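Components:
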Amino acid sequence: MRDPTHLQEKFRARFGTAAAIYRAPGRVNLIGEHTDYNDGFVLPAAIQFYCWVAAAPRSDKKLLIHSENFNETVEANLDSISAAGKNHWANYPLGVAWALQSAGKRLNGANLLISGDVPLGAGLSSSAAIEVGVGFALLCQSGCTVKRTELALLCQKAENEFVGARCGIMDQFIACHGKASFALLLDCRSLDSQTAQLPAGVQLVICNTMVKHELASGEYNRRRAECEEGVRALRVVLPQIRALRDVTIAQLENHCSLLNPTVYSRCRHVVTENERTQEAIRALDTHNLREFGRLMRESHRSLRDDYEVSCKELDLLVEIASAQPGVVGARMTGGGFGGCTINLVESSAVEVFKENVAAKYRAQTGLNPEIYVSPAADGVQQVDVSSRESAQ
Ligand code: ADP
Ligand code: MG
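Structure:
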């Protein structure tokens, strides 16, 4: 984790003034994968890995944005923001400035120093962390207020329309609304959410496969198109449905002949995953950890076989983890094709789990997996650097 005092010093060395410090968290999703863009349910928790943003106002309309992760500075003018080129990191912060202004927020020029400790491109949503961290910083620096849900929606708009990635709302929502010790059940249609207390005596353990397969973004967009195709075909007999969220398992089975086999499998994942996510909340409420673990395993199976977004490294990590003592459940988390798994592990078993999983995965792949243990964290906030507590 970054030391915010150190970040202030770096900011002063680069820009010559003091800075305010903000941070927005990455996330894991416990269950409810590829459901957000189908108007469904998700159960993410923010984690104690952050995108840190040091910011100070400028007297002109410029944005000077330096990313420590890329060791690069980008300059833009708020009156004429344009994209920085395909796949350039600066499109995330620039897109957020563009989206905030397009919603009528009057932004001041600012110097920004960005330093992220959420692993980039590992499925823990470093992208929403940078968007929400920068958005929050720019709004604070400009004296604008905005509701957290509106900030999440504007950051999603930046990623959809400026960066060009068709993500759902989950990542930005949890980066804004995360709550320490809690996961959040989010209804991605109404944006109603409720906190879900994580069980005592278990920890969130994240295992990074250390791979990211190139086909991820193309396949992601293809899955979205397949879901839309499923809805179009089912509307012929179910005209009231707007999204796969509205389809029951029985309806899907009754009308499976309307769908080609691939689209049917994709729909089956989404429909059953929505069901599982709501069952998972009931399992948490009734302290039924065994059932929660079963649902996580079933979710992974469905993502692997029906949605086909897993990969051999994710499957291997889940298989190794599931055989360890003290493991409640294990599954891939995030978009898939690499990235991370989420494991619920009894606290007393975590150290042995880390050693065993790392050794076995290394032996079979030659890759050294990073393993992170994180309590559920709070959403975006300004960090009071003078207070030792918040600076930890
Ligand atoms: P994920 O969100 O799972 O980490 P994405 O591909 O959605 O993966 O987003 C990763 C991209 O977000 C990076 O390649 C980079 O362009 C941008 N990004 C995230 N964090 C930072 C950062 N600290 N500095 C600059 N760019 C960042
Ligand atoms: Mg992302």
